[in-house]
TrEMBL record:
Protein family per UniProt: Belongs to the cytochrome P450 family.
Localization per Swiss-Prot or TrEMBL: Endoplasmic reticulum membrane; Microsome membrane
Residues at which heme binds: C451
Pfam families: p450 (PF00067)
Residues spanning the membrane: 6-25
One of the record's GO molecular function terms: heme binding
Name of the protein in its database record: Uncharacterized protein
Cofactor(s) needed by this chain: heme
The entry's keywords: Endoplasmic reticulum, Heme, Iron, Membrane, Metal-binding, Microsome, Monooxygenase, Oxidoreductase, Transmembrane, Transmembrane helix
InterPro entries, A to Z: Cyt_P450 (IPR001128), Cyt_P450_E_grp-I (IPR002401), Cyt_P450_sf (IPR036396), Insect_CytP450_Detox (IPR050476)
Originating organism: Anopheles quadriannulatus
GO cellular component, one term: endoplasmic reticulum membrane
Annotated membrane topology: Peripheral membrane protein
Length: 507
């Protein structure tokens, strides 16, 4: 082959490779057009993520743009790079598709299951199959949703809040980045409530539980990060070689922590309640200690970040809205809660009697939802019916297809919440949550059975807010951002510049 032939051979080969690469990348480009679902033409490399990759917007803010652009449609298409994602926009369609058809959309779309990890895979949100999922939900629901259970743990909460107040009081002249402080506080709370551990990470954060728990909550363990990538890229290979996501040593450690807490006679913890509930089941249906430990770990990992974020955003809004803060303090004073007990926090039953505090928590969840994006994976073939006017054809979904709901966009829609950017707890004062907005427009804890631990999360946040306001006035500082800017985060909302607040002692 002479030089000219080699040149033309190389040219043709590169052209063909480029052509087939382009076709591979754009093979889904007509996906939404064929379904007659509105969409915006994607870039062949990064789809609709142009503003996200340039740093102008977060994914949630980009989806909000699409939500407004396709305001006359129940569904819209979005290209996550070149992978098509079908978003359900209309609340009536959300209610029509997901609530009566939950048996078709049981999965949350997580990559983990019992095959990849027998420890984490038996947790409620990862269990596969309608029968297993229903049984696990029936077992856990009385534990997490019975009011007397979370209320029995107020001693742990008061101890943790006292440690938080002592830590802040020693630094009260400073402008503080409260989320970093709340990380320690939330770790103390969930370590005590889930596993019965009396930690005070403000004084000592070297306990092994801190490292294990942080790895579970944030996925900071480098080995698990590598495993996550491997499970996404090579699921078949990882399954064949039998690699488990959770480290065996960490699993044994958590089982040991569970057994210690469950057997302590005078210790109120999720571990103890799980063992008591398990003992009432038929022997053939009882869970193993490993499975019960996994449910404790689930309570920790699924409750940690929502509690941390809800608390951080609530404190920010109270500092930015002095009238709201004043009304809350007046409500506390009217109910005799401004003096506090020896530990600084009244019992949960007293905190439950504060309707304006409840409204503040709900409004924070509306404006800054803990779960800004809901994902439901199809577990049985399902067909989304065509529109009556014929604008959209029926959409067949096969097993593995996913539906997405942007909670962020719903909660910030002026159609359902007038002046959505304004923080106004009055939206929820004197109203049942389901009646405060149109159905399926306020869904901070998901659709269907929702989050079993939502009452725990709300109570932890309420107790902490009461403890803070008993001792301090929350005020913006020099470093407090206005408005609050977000940065891209994998699963939740993250403030770009943190939560800097100045705390002034009450006289």
């Amino acid at each position: 082959m002479n030089q000219e032939d080699l040149y033309w051979f190389t040219f043709i080969l590169v052209t063909l490779l480029g052509f087939f690469t382009y076709k591979l990348l754009t093979r889904h480009r007509s996906y939404f057009r064929l379904l007659r679902v509105p969409f915006e033409r994607p870039h062949f490399l990064y789809g609709n993520l142009d503003d996200v990759l340039s740093g102008k917007l977060t994914t949630m803010e980009k989806l909000e743009q699409f939500y407004r652009k396709f305001s006359n449609h129940g569904l819209f298409g979005f290209f996550n790079y070149m992978t098509p994602a079908l978003y359900v926009r209309d609340p009536a369609l959300i209610r029509q598709l997901l609530q009566p058809n939950m048996s078709h959309f049981e999965s949350h779309g997580y990559f983990l299951d019992e095959e990849k990890d027998r420890f984490l895979g038996c947790q409620l949100h990862l269990v596969k199959g309608a029968e297993k999922s229903t049984k696990m939900a029936s077992f856990l629901s009385p534990i997490f949703r019975t009011p007397k259970v979370p209320c029995s743990m107020d001693v742990t909460t008061r101890r943790c809040c006292a440690a938080l107040i002592d830590f802040i009081a020693s630094r009260v002249e400073l402008e503080l980045e409260l989320k970093a402080i709340f990380v320690k506080h939330t770790l103390n709370l969930f370590a005590g409530i889930a596993f019965g551990r009396e930690l005070n990470t403000f004084e000592d954060d070297t306990d092994r539980f801190c490292a294990v728990a942080s790895g579970m909550a944030y996925g900071t363990n480098p080995v698990q990060v590598i495993k996550t990538m491997a499970f996404y890229l090579m699921p078949g290979f990882m399954r064949t070689v039998g690699v488990q996501f959770t480290d065996r040593e960490e699993m044994d450690y958590l089982v040991k922590q569970y057994r210690a807490a469950a057997s302590a006679p005078n210790l109120h913890s999720v571990a103890r309640y799980l063992r008591q509930a398990n003992g009432k089941m038929k022997p053939s249906e009882q869970l193993t200690d490993e499975q019960l430990s996994a449910q404790c770990a689930m309570f920790f990992t699924k409750g940690f970040e929502p509690t941390l974020n809800l608390l951080s955003f609530a404190v920010y809004e109270l500092a930015q809205n002095p009238d709201v803060q004043r009304k809350l303090y007046e409500e506390m004073h009217h109910n005799g809660l401004t003096t506090g007990s020896a530990t600084g926090v009244p019992p949960f039953e007293s905190i439950r009697a504060l309707p304006y505090l409840e409204a503040i928590v709900l409004e924070t969840l509306r404006k800054w939802p803990s779960h800004p994006l809901l994902v439901r994976e199809c577990t049985k073939p399902f067909t989304i019916p065509a529109t009556e006017n014929g604008d959209r054809a029926a959409i067949p979904l096969k097993v593995g297809d996913k539906l997405y709901v942007s909670v962020w966009a719903l909660h910030r829609s002026g159609d359902y919440f007038p002046e959505p950017e304004r923080f106004s707890p009055e939206r929820f004062v004197g109203k049942d949550v389901t009646n405060a907005a149109q159905p399926s427009t306020f869904i901070p804890f998901g659709i269907g059975r929702g989050c079993l631990g939502q009452e725990f999360v709300k109570l932890m946040v309420k107790a902490t807010l009461v403890a803070l306001l008993q001792r301090f006035k929350l005020q913006p500082g020099e470093r407090t951002p206005e408005p609050l800017q977000l940065i891209e985060s994998a699963s939740s909302l993250e403030a770009r510049d943190g939560f800097w607040i100045r705390l002034e002692p009450r006289l």
